[in-house]
Amino acid sequence: MLLYGHSLTHKSADILLHWSASLLLPFEQSLAITNSTVCKPELTVCRPGVMVCRPDGKRIASGSYDSTVCLWDAETGLQLGSPLTGHTEQVTSVAFSPDGKRIASGSWDNTICLWDAETGLQLGSPLTGHTHRVSSVAFSPDGKRIASGSHDRTICLWDAETGLQLGGPLTGNTEPVTSVAFSPDGKRIVSGSVDRTICLWDTETGLPLGSPLTGHTNFVTSVAFSPDGKRVVSGSHDNTIHMWDCPPDDVGSLFSYHIPT
User: Fold this and answer.
1) Where do the domains of the chain lie, and which CATH numbers do they carry?
2) Taking the model in full, what pTM does it have?
3) What residue ranges in the chain does DSSP mark as E strands?
4) Residue 35, phi then psi, degrees to nearest 5
5) Rounded to a whole number, what is the largest CA-CA distance in the chain?
6) In the 8-state DSSP scheme, what is residue 124?
7) Distance between CA atoms of 173 and 215, rounded to whole angstroms?
8) CB-based contact 166:146 (threshold 8 Å)
9) Strand, coil or helix: what is 144?
10) Cα–Cα distance for residue pair 178/134, rounded to 1 Å
11) How far from chain centre, in Å, is Cα 51?
């Protein structure tokens, strides 16, 4: 089923990861490998998540190079309403809130926008604080916070109701942050970066948990926690997927297993 609506096609989605029960699925894997050889690096390091399903599986939200977000009926493939407009540069990441009522979108215009998932109306003003392109956004499991990763090498936390930034940026990466995800209990964030590392962060203190996890030999493009929060999975431009043991009482170690793509 093909979905048509954006005025520009999606480009070079790198390895996108979704953990469903115990099954790890590389999403749009063939597209990533095909396009990665023809796109400039700066156009391929922030493609983690331009499409996402609502938690109930009935709707899809997509972000595009045409600076819009579109909503789709997951059963019929029909576009729901008009594109959501508000960003001034390409949209690189979209996320539904856990209750499916809101959408967060990140863009190369350095901002995050919030949307009503039913009406398509923008909720408040764009969230500003990053000084470079936003590459990834994620809601916390309780829907009260949003995490965003950016080319400015930082991660920011936001109050999802007020739009206010919570504390200062999380710093430590030496290159752009490409992907962020909350742990199931909301107490940790995992991030991937162009610096080839995966970092774990304490969401209360904003401090890194242990040293960066190393093992990839190229950009890390996508990260996710397992449903029990004990493992992290990472996808990379090195054409591999790694899984890491990251129980809550440990800072992470490579679970010697990788999936060549």
Assistant:
1) 16-260 (2.130.10.10)
2) 0.81
3) 16-20, 23-27, 51-53, 59-63, 69-73, 91-96, 102-107, 111-116, 127-128, 134-139, 145-150, 154-159, 170-171, 177-182, 188-193, 198-202, 220-225, 231-236, 240-245, 253-260
4) -85, -20
5) 47
6) S
7) 15
8) no
9) coil
10) 9
11) 10
Sign of CA dihedral 168, 107, 224, 100: positive
CB-CB contact of 223 with 191 (8 Å): yes
Using H for helix, E for strand and C for coil, what is the string for 53-117?
ECCCCCEEEEECCCCCEEEEECCCCCECCCCECCCCCCEEEEEECCCCCEEEEEECCCEEEEEEC
Residues, the chain: 261
CA-nearest of 78, 62, 81 to 11 is 62
- Three-class SS state of 249: coil
Q: Give the integer Cα–Cα distance in Å for 114 and 161.
A: 10
Walk along the chain (261 residues) and give the pLDDT tens digit of each residue: 555 565 543 333 344 454 433 333 333 332 232 222 222 333 233 333 488 999 999 999 999 999 999 999 999 999 999 999 999 999 999 999 999 999 999 999 999 999 999 999 999 999 999 999 999 999 999 999 999 999 999 999 999 999 999 999 999 999 999 999 999 999 999 999 999 999 999 999 999 999 999 999 999 999 999 999 999 999 999 999 999 998 766 655 545 455 555
Token match 């490998």: residue?
33
Q: Which of 6, 14, 19, 25 is nearest to 63 (CA)?
A: 6
